[in-house]
Amino acid sequence: MAQTPPSFADTEPAAPATTGGASGAAPAFSPLYQQIKGLILNSLRLGEWKPGEPIPSEFDLAARFRVSQGTVRKAVDELAADNLLVRRQGKGTFVATHAAQHIRYRFLKLVPDATVRDREAPATRTIVECRRLRANADVARALNLRSGDPVLQVRRVLAFAERPTILEDIWLPGSSFKGLTAERLREHDGPMYALFETEFGVRMVRAEEKIRAVAADAQQAELLRVSPGVPLLSVERIAFTYHDVPMELRRGLYLTDSHHYRNELS
Amino acid sequence: MAQTPPSFADTEPAAPATTGGASGAAPAFSPLYQQIKGLILNSLRLGEWKPGEPIPSEFDLAARFRVSQGTVRKAVDELAADNLLVRRQGKGTFVATHAAQHIRYRFLKLVPDATVRDREAPATRTIVECRRLRANADVARALNLRSGDPVLQVRRVLAFAERPTILEDIWLPGSSFKGLTAERLREHDGPMYALFETEFGVRMVRAEEKIRAVAADAQQAELLRVSPGVPLLSVERIAFTYHDVPMELRRGLYLTDSHHYRNELS
DNA sequence: CAGTGGTCTAGACCACACT
DNA sequence: GTGTGGTCTAGACCACTGC
After folding, report:
1. For residue B102, is it within any domain?
2. Is the CB of B160 under 7 A from strand C?
3. Does the beta-carbon distance from A229 to B229 stay under 8 Å?
4. Predicted pLDDT of residue B22
5. Which of A211, A238, A240, A250 is most worth mutating to test chain B (most B CB atoms within 10 A of its CB)?
6. pLDDT block averages, 10 residues each, chain A of length 266
7. Final residue in a domain of this structure, among B66, B95, B124
């Protein structure tokens, strides 16, 4: 019984099988659970299950993909480790979401110095600007577009406890965010990435950041209400959806007088 | 056969069993593989297997702890995920090490801007200072010592391609690093954490960093050969050994003209 | 109570690295 | 070939949630 040749393991789109491609290069070899992982990933990308919703039980998925429950488990385990799914014992497995994930701002690593742990000073968000324009070479490269492609640019200021602390410019592919306006952003309450999920079906899954120390120029200083030349943390982020597709470029300037960027290494 | 009550699962020190403590508070419940994980962790801390060496095979460990190979596997999987062990198919499982991990400086996230990928400009290290003194309140708190306890302080400069780029102050508990001198540091070739492993039996396992933007003061500017006031990345790190014991406080200043701090979010 | 994820076992076979 | 980690299965039972 054990180890049936990892054959036609699916029901829907088109079943991968045994090892790698037929074209001959590397023998590859992809474990069954990796293939299952890919199939689940596809369903996520296609929106078969939406953020916050439960996916089918391990048992159901096992039947659907014609593999054992243990194999599905390993696939789901990895997706949960990547924060794409969230397991809750006794209830089910759910598609991860930036909304109400009871930790607002999952990607924001700036935290207050004091560990006072009071109600965490709800941020006030101010949209300074929101306009459509054409991507320059820089932005195009980051978002995997062509120079001149339409992009949406947003500039905003976040303040904690009345204190302007973050100034950021955000660039989004115009084609994926058609109805997005300053009004829409102002109306929305909660993380921006939550709005992207509900209104545009775009879920940010992963991001890379490049961090530097820079001096505030005149305009930046005014918006953050500090003196020009003050040292600021420059944080450039590229955020990706499923399958590593870049969907956002964000350039942030953080005031680190009473906050710091917190990171864990292991 | 399945699910023998998770009973006396050990041979050596003292076997934990079933659930949590006997003191009555929370029922707890700790899975068998977690207990195994703890036992392996103890052996690592006690130096039964040293950095770079292989640990016994899963089969041997299973026999030793009187559990199935699958249970050992799950424990080892988690330890490997935490970078405490390294699995190598066909060869064995090894204790992770900072030495020759074919990636020098595992905890240093500063990378060159240009992705030129040439021979990566071997860093030159200059020990500016190395002295023993008594911990002030700040250092004592970070290292879980008492004010006045002996500590070792090291100040050094790292240069990449002739360019001084990192200035850091390092504090270590004096009791754990008795024979460490400036000479010993200068002689050593390779990551400092590798020397800690081989000479002092201290392996750094995990670290937390707090990052800010600051302006260089006169002394710092001189050591980094920049003008006073230049923005620098301030990186405060606390590094931990096994069981979350803090063993190093490090305050670094990074020049981010041609380098940046790289971070991945997920 | 039934349903879901979580743990544990046992055994078979595969892929990889040495010898 | 032998030994190691890696994959896959099948089945049993535990822990948590909600009806």
Report:
1. no
2. no
3. yes
4. 38
5. A211
6. 38 38 55 96 96 97 96 97 96 93 85 73 89 97 98 97 96 97 94 95 97 98 98 98 97 97 97
7. B95
pLDDT of residue B152: 98
Backbone angles phi, psi at B141, to 5 degrees: -60, -45
**Does A116 lie in the same domain as A87?**
no
pLDDT tens digits along A129-162: 999 999 999 999 999 999 999 999 999 999 999 9
pLDDT at B116: 65
Q: Which domain holds residue B197?
A: 110-261
B215 contacts on A by Cβ (under 8 Å):
231
Chain B residue closest to A234 (CA)?
A: B213
Q: Are residues A78 and A121 in the same domain?
A: no
Note whether A165 and A227 are same-domain residues. Answer: yes
Residue nearest to nucleotide D6 (CA to C1'): B89
Assess whether A121 and A87 both reside in one domain.
no
One domain, residues B70 and B135: no
Tell me: do A87 and A118 sit in the same domain: no
Distance B54 CA to D6 C1' (A): 18
Conformation bin of residue B192: beta by default, left when phi > 0, alpha when psi is -120 to 50: alpha
Specify whether the CB–CB gap between B234 and B214 falls below 8 A. Answer: yes
A82 inside domain: yes
| pTM of the entire predicted model | 0.90
Beta bridge partners of A157: A126, A167
Nearest residue in chain B measured CA to CA from A83: B266
Q: For residue A131, which amino acid is it? A: R
Which domain CATH number covers B33?
A: 1.10.10.10
Question: SS3 for B120?
Answer: coil
Mean pLDDT by 10 residues, chain B (266 residues): 37 38 55 96 96 97 96 97 96 93 85 73 89 97 98 97 96 97 94 95 97 98 98 98 97 97 96
B194 and B222 fall within a common domain:
yes
- On whether residue B144 sits in a domain, the answer given is yes
- At residue B49, what are phi and psi to the nearest 5 degrees? -120, 130
**Structural domain total, chain B:** 2
- Indicate the Cα dihedral angle B71, B40, A76, A56, nearest 10°: 50
Q: A67 φ, ψ to 5°?
A: -130, 175
B88 touches strand D (CB under 7 A): yes
Mutate to test the interface with A, among B212, B227, B250 (most CBs of A within 10 A): B212
Is the CB of B261 less than 8 angstroms away from the CB of A210? yes
Q: Are A107 and A204 in contact (CB under 8 A)?
A: yes
